Inverse folding.
């Protein structure tokens, strides 16, 4: 211790005192009036209580304010096979009652976001249609019912089941009939289930109903072959195809399969310099007809006469029986000659639901020996099983009081039946009306019970579209709402304690597993079928069919009145997708109109009647629709698309267009879209249409380059001479040529294969989160589609040739857009992609001006979370369809096709992780993947043997507007028509 | 009184130096603000308010409120931008070109022309801003050091050159204008009796005392600024022209554009000066400073420039035909000379190339009303020229499938009217608060060009008043 010295006695005393004091606790610092505890922060019990009271109330206050809920997936227990950011694909099957397609469903974080074609399916062969592509959006439709309903009030499944079972049993005991009205069922297991349901309730009468029926083909085959079937058509085996009002590339039977077959014979290469020739006789200008080499305009009433004339010409040459035929002006010698030259390698089809016509078609095909070759009776198509006679019987049994209940599954007859009003009235008095409709549509609105069916992406099922071609439907997401698959409902009403998924598996085990020899264990069989999505039974089938001759006759053609030809549009089909904004905004492949149906009328007819585009006419005094001048429309006829005019479809589809099913033609009990005699009256009104294209001819510019087959054979560069001229000076430039190492992505589009089905547009829209902008904006020329299919007519004449050209960003190496961006938001990647940095874009739109292809799109408004655009991007549910790999663009930025850069990147990363080189064909753009005609090839231009290079290796190749020297990496192949020069 | 005139009379009415000072400062110091000024200001403000609504609507809801579409993505905004920039050309053209050419008659006009330039360029500058899809990110356009890489602008883009050229031009014009006003501010400061005005003009005059050294510095500063600004007359509008000429579009991709635009800009600028000066001399009774001789001189310049315009139009058509380029030919022969935009095209030709040729006749040149009407027609014609360039080329480019027409929306019209309101309001403010003519420069030419044998200006006024009574 330090020694202390004292200096005096006083001092000593003081020191002593302090020493004593230092033993006491002295505060480190003191402030007068405050006690120590407060200064040092030690709190008393009271303080503690005070503090706690404050903090509890503060927390309560803060937590009662809404805080953003951030959803995240906790991976403490990661679900099997679910890696955030990595997509899972499930093979499944699309079937909506009209159309079949085997699909792969891409799911991200357990939600389906994209439909892809299934390569393994021998029928659809990785192709899809626009409707199939858009079907994923129906899963996220705001109009979907979220609960079962009883008299439009929410109810629960238990009490619903109880009540329905009681009623069904009551009817059974009383022997009262219950009608079970379904769409065509192609599912073998569902058919079996319905059979058991009927066994349990024998009073149930099953009736299949098609809104656009094709029963006459079955009837004709019953007469000719004693089998009521629709045979399988092989368009790829036919050298000459003759179609009569058959939109087989767009909507008729199996459009994807037929497109695949058709395009196979339209491709030209060094090894294949032959292509099929396609004649089309039709009333409206259809998408299919616009691809014809020769197109003839006929009135609906002339169809049977033309066919019979053709038959007579053929039979004369082939020494067969002739029939008396009414006179028609249309010349058929050319067709007849071509048909005779390719006997057994030709195909005649008609899409008209008229027995007379189908009998003549059969007779012609028989005369030409096409059965067993281009037409396969041993592989019947199971679509369109409905028979209108059953429907009429049902209506009469309802009206007579014989039936007291009705169950609707996947049908909406109050909307699409010819006598919709009568039908609605006749079901009103029934004691039990049940609908399985997933939305409150026109029919289910009138029902006591609505048992919302699952979306097909939430369901288990199977399908057999063509005999022996099996396909599975498996769920890709748990039911989003309190809905139940219709099959499960049936099972529970039958009192069966089994789920339909098990029922399905059992059926496969007991049925199909036994009919195959490939797999020894059922688990393996079932697993691989689910994985592949399809299974083909190789069973021996009866191939012996004898043709029974029937007497042929034809109607007398009419000349005086105006005839109506209704048609299914490529986007709306029979009308199931009215609430799907992607399809509503999809331009019609022929008219380029969106968001409406309309009256197509020929130019001469319009002139005669003093009608202008967008004038409103009254059809049969009932339906008011605007006029659209349609080159190629047969004079004296008009065309209207069915599938529009819903009033109970949901926020998007209600009130779009007019319902024209009531104008269908009923002849001898058959519902035929063609041939109603109508009158049209001009009104004073006009109604504006939203067309995506306002100019329809090429003005002599070398845009779509074409030639004919014989010139092509002489010189493959024919029609493309300009390109040969151009490549001589191609490298003349002041600037150094851009160089690439590794990758240079390129695309090749075969204009000869492309049929203009618009599947790519919807596929691109789904993949790239392209916004729907609505009719008003489409009319203003602000559609957002990154990919468009330009359609040109040779001239604005009565029957012009049609050209189509899919145009997306051409990814120019000398991109005119890139150098004008003031902020440098546009860059050229080392792989040849023209890139947009959305974040950097300030929206001067200079790039849009300077793009000669006009493929750049501006976000004129905020399209997301904006209630002015009440489609799918303003609802929590609708936004679930967004692809998380692609940025959703803000208002004020420019966007465009990226060649699906996210797909390129994904595959590159996969290859890198596997430590291997990226294989050719591994990266598939969205438009390419599901193209039903394989018109699009994509790959690395630096790889010599890549598919895209091989496709480009022809004199047919050229670049769009190549004279501008933009050096695009997208190339086109000339269109070759199989016509006699 | 002073020396005899050599070059004809530029200032009439036997003015003294004191007369000039008092005449020019009269509106600021003596006259009560006239009623028409209030009325005009009210109208201009109303226009501006509507314009503010247009701005608001555009910024809040998006460019979708305009009439543009994916094919015609530039419309009125760019037309008006180029139009205003053209009008804004008069200031420098007068101050510098005529200075270099020793045209003394500029002295009574250049101040107003420069003021016009400032407001016109400011009005023009609003368009590129409001035209942006994301105005909140507009600062991206400036090359500022940043942490994004750094991420620079695209120095190859004509739009970037535009930003630089216009901001330089605006700054230079403003500084030149302001420097010229400093001695005049001091004059007002000395003459005013209002304390506030004394203070304000005192600050504005930067403590100008009129010393010999001050004058020396002033002269050299003006000269330097003039020398620096001279190239801008050519650069601004030729760079604006490259916005189009650097594009690939038919009707745009043309080497004639830069000189063609500069000439067009001088044309519209002079026409606007003419319009403005006719109004100013009338309402402020400056007939003796802005004489008929002045207007005659402007009219002669307009006649000559109009000839150049006419030649340019003919050359454009000829080159389109001579090029044998189908796209170019289509634009000129099917979408301009004929077709849906034929009216606009022929209005352009008539107002710019034909109507001004009437100035060959002295009778017309000296009829102020006719001259006034023609000057306005020229401005309309020049607006149509920009309309024709922007809309006809964009509406029908290479692929006919993408052709789309264009018409403006209410919001776009509001924005344009708003900028007109802004311009008029600016000019009115200028008339009220700033000296409309350069006092010192007028004094500088008084000796040689004053009309000294004519009766005094005030006597004339008195006589007029007596006559009225």
């Amino acid at each position: 211790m330090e020694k202390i010295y004292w200096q005096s006695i006083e001092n000593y005393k003081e020191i002593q005192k302090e020493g004593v004091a230092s033993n006491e606790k002295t505060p480190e610092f003191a402030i007068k009036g405050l006690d120590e505890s407060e200064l040092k922060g030690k709190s008393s019990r009271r303080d503690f209580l005070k503090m706690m009271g404050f903090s509890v109330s503060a927390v309560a206050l803060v937590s009662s304010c809404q805080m953003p809920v951030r959803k995240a997936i906790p991976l403490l227990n990661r679900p099997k096979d679910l890696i955030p950011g990595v997509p899972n694909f499930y093979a499944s099957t699309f079937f909506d009652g009209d159309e079949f397609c085997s699909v792969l469903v891409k799911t991200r974080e357990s939600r389906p976001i994209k439909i892809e074609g299934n390569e393994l399916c021998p029928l659809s062969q990785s192709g899809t249609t626009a409707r199939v592509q858009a079907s994923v959006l129906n899963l996220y439709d705001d109009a979907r019912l979220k609960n079962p309903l009883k008299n439009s009030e929410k109810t629960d499944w238990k009490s619903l089941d109880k009540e329905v079972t009681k009623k069904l049993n009551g009817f059974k005991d009383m022997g009262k009939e219950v009608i079970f009205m379904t769409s065509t069922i192609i599912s073998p297991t569902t058919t079996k289930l319905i059979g058991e349901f009927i066994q349990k309730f024998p009073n149930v009468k099953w009736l299949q109903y098609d809104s656009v029926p094709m029963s006459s083909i079955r009837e004709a085959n019953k007469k000719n072959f004693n089998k009521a079937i629709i045979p399988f058509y092989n368009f790829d085996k036919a050298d000459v195809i003759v179609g009569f009002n058959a939109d087989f590339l767009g909507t008729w039977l199996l459009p994807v399969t037929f497109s695949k077959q058709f395009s196979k014979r339209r491709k030209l290469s060094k090894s294949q310099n032959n292509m099929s020739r396609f004649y089309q006789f039709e009333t409206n200008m259809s998408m299919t007809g616009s691809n014809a080499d020769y197109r003839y305009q006929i009135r609906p009433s002339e169809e049977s006469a033309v066919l019979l004339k053709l038959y007579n010409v053929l039979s004369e040459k082939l020494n067969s029986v002739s029939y008396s035929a009414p006179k028609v002006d249309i010349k058929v010698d050319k067709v007849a000659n071509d048909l005779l030259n390719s006997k057994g390698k030709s195909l005649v089809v008609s899409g008209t639901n008229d027995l007379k016509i189908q009998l003549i078609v059969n007779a012609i095909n028989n005369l030409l020996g096409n059965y067993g070759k281009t037409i396969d009776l041993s592989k019947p198509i199971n679509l369109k099983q409905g028979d209108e006679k059953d429907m009429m019987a049902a209506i009469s049994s309802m009206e007579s009081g014989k039936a007291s209940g009705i169950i609707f599954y996947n049908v909406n007859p109050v909307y699409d039946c010819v006598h919709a009003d009568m039908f609605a009235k006749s079901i009103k008095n029934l004691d039990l009306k049940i609908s399985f409709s997933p939305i409150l549509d026109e029919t289910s609105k009138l029902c006591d019970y609505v048992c919302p069916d699952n979306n097909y992406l939430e369901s288990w099922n199977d399908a057999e579209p063509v005999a022996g071609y099996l396909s599975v439907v498996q769920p890709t997401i748990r039911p989003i709402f309190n809905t139940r698959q219709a099959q499960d409902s049936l099972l529970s009403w039958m009192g069966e304690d089994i789920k339909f998924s098990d029922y399905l598996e059992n059926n496969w085990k007991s049925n199909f597993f036994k009919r195959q020899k490939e797999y020894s264990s059922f688990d393996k069989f079932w697993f691989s079928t689910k994985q592949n999505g399809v299974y083909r039974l190789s069973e021996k089938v009866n191939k012996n069919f004898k043709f029974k001759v029937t007497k042929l006759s034809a109607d007398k053609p009419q000349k005086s009145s105006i005839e109506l030809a209704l048609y299914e549009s490529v986007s709306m089909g029979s009308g199931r997708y009215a609430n799907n904004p992607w399809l509503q905004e999809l331009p019609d492949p022929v008219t380029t109109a969106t968001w409406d149906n309309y009256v197509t009328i020929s130019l001469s007819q319009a002139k005669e009647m003093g009608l202008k585009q967008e004038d409103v006419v009254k059809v049969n005094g009932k339906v008011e629709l605007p006029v659209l001048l349609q080159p190629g429309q047969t004079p004296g006829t008009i065309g209207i698309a069915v599938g529009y005019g819903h009033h109970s479809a949901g926020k998007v589809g209600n009130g779009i267009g007019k319902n024209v099913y009531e104008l269908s033609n009923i002849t001898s009990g058959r519902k035929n879209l063609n041939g109603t005699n109508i009158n049209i009256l001009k009104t004073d009104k006009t109604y504006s249409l939203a067309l995506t294209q306002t100019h329809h001819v090429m003005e002599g510019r070398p845009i779509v380059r074409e030639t004919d087959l014989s010139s092509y054979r002489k010189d493959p560069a024919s029609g493309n001479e300009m390109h040969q001229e151009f490549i001589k000076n191609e490298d003349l430039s002041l600037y150094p040529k851009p160089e690439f190492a590794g990758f240079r992505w390129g695309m090749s589009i075969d204009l000869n294969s492309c049929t203009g089905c618009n599947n790519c547009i919807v596929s691109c829209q789904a993949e790239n989160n392209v916004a729907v902008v609505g009719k008003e904006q489409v009319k203003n020329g602000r559609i957002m589609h990154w990919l468009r299919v330009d359609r040109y007519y040779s001239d604005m004449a009565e029957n012009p040739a049609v050209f189509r050209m899919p145009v997306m960003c051409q990814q120019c190496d000398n991109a005119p857009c890139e150098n004008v961006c003031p902020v440098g938001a546009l860059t050229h990647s080392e792989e040849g992609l023209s890139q947009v940095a959305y974040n950097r874009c300030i929206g001067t739109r200079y790039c849009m001006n300077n793009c000669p292809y006009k493929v750049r799109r501006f976000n004129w408004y905020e399209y997301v979370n904006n209630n002015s655009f009440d489609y799918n991007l303003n609802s929590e549910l609708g936004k679930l369809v967004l692809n998380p790999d692609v940025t959703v663009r803000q208002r004020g930025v420019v966007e465009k096709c990226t060649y699906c850069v996210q797909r390129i990147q994904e595959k590159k990363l996969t290859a890198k992780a596997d430590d291997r080189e990226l294989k050719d064909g591994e990266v598939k753009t969205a438009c390419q993947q599901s193209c039903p005609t394989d018109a699009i090839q994509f790959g690395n231009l630096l790889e010599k043997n890549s598919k895209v290079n091989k496709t480009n290796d022809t004199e047919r190749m050229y670049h769009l507007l190549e004279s501008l020297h933009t050096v695009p990496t997208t190339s086109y192949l000339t269109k070759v028509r199989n016509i006699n020069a | 009184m002073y020396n005899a005139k050599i070059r004809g009379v530029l200032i009439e009415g036997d003015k003294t130096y004191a007369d000039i000072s008092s005449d020019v400062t009269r509106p600021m110091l003596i006259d009560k603000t006239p009623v028409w000024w209030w009325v005009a200001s009210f109208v201009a403000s109303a226009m501006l308010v509507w314009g503010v609504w247009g701005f608001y609507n555009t910024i809040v809801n998006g460019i979708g409120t305009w009439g543009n579409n994916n094919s015609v993505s530039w419309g009125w905004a760019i037309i008006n931008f180029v139009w205003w920039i053209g009008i804004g050309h008069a200031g420098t053209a007068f101050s510098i070109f005529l200075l270099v050419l020793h045209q003394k008659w500029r002295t009574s006009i250049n101040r107003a022309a420069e003021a016009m330039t400032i407001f016109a360029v400011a009005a023009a500058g609003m368009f590129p801003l409001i035209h942006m899809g994301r105005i909140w990110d507009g600062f991206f356009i400036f090359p500022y050091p940043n942490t994004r890489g750094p991420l620079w602008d695209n120095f190859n883009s004509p739009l970037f050159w535009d930003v630089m050229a216009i901001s330089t031009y605006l700054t230079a014009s403003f500084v030149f204008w302001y420097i010229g006003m400093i001695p005049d501010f001091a004059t007002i400061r000395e003459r005013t009796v209002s304390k506030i005005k004394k203070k304000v003009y005192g600050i504005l005059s930067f403590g100008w005392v009129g010393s010999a050294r001050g004058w020396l510095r002033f002269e050299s500063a003006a000269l330097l600024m003039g020398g620096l600004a001279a190239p801008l007359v050519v650069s601004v509008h030729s760079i604006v022209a490259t916005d189009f000429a650097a594009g690939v579009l038919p009707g745009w991709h043309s080497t004639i554009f830069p000189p063609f635009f500069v000439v067009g800009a001088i044309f519209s600028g002079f026409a606007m000066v003419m319009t403005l000066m006719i109004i100013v001399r009338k309402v402020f009774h400056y007939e003796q400073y802005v004489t008929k001789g002045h207007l005659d001189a402007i009219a002669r310049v307009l006649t000559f420039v109009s000839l150049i315009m006419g030649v340019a139009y003919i050359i454009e058509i000829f080159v389109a035909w001579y090029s044998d380029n189908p796209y170019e030919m289509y634009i000129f022969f099917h979408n301009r000379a004929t077709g849906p935009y034929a009216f606009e095209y022929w209005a352009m030709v008539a107002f710019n190339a034909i109507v001004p040729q009437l100035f060959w006749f002295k009778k017309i040149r000296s009829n102020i009303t006719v001259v006034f009407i023609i000057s306005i027609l020229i401005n309309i014609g020049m607006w149509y020229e920009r309309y024709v360039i922007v809309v006809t080329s964009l509406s029908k480019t290479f692929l006919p499938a993408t052709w789309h027409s264009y018409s403006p929306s209410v919001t776009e019209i509001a924005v344009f009217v708003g900028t007109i309101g802004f311009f008029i309001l600016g000019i009115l403010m200028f008339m009220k608060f700033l000296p409309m003519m350069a006092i010192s420069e007028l004094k500088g030419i008084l000796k040689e060009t004053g009309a000294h044998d004519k009766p005094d200006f005030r006597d004339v006024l008195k006589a007029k008043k007596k006559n009225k009574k």
About this structure: The two ends of chain B are 31 Å apart (CA to CA). Chain B touches chain A through 52 residues (CB under 8 Å). Confidence is low (pLDDT under 50) at residues 1-6 of chain B.
